[in-house]
User: What shape does this take?
Amino acid sequence: MTHPESTRAISGSTAVRRRRLVAVAAAVAAALAVFAVIEGVMGVDLQSPGFGTSGAQDLGFAPVLVASALAGATAWGLLALLERWTSLPRRYWTIAVTLGFVISIGGPMSGAGISQSNRWLLLLLHVVVAVVLIPLLYRTVPSGSDGSRA
Assistant: This one.
């Protein structure tokens, strides 16, 4: 016989995991959609800047998928850790992912071998992932868990 409390906790946890998975998938899908518009509709051959002795490299579908999925998984993992280790997970997570986003902008804005318009389009990809991922994951934290109101 199961206890209703434990069943509720498990289903609540499953619902949170499902919402977080949807948030990551939505961020990946948004990045891929923007990439498809940039490459397919606008006809821009998107490239990542070169660093050191390496030159600019063609940016394809797979690196966009992997980078956005890794960003989402990292944000999700950090949120899960902060929920276990702190009493203010929303606050600390929001600060950490905002800093992470700002640092990630350094990639497209530095390096060599790409045009200014290419830099802006890479920046757009970073912004799209952040704008989708951060609010969706933020909403998965229970509203009373850190004293804030949802």
Remarks:
- The helical segments are 4-41, 61-85, 89-104, 106-109, 116-138.
- Confidence is low (pLDDT under 50) at residues 1-11.
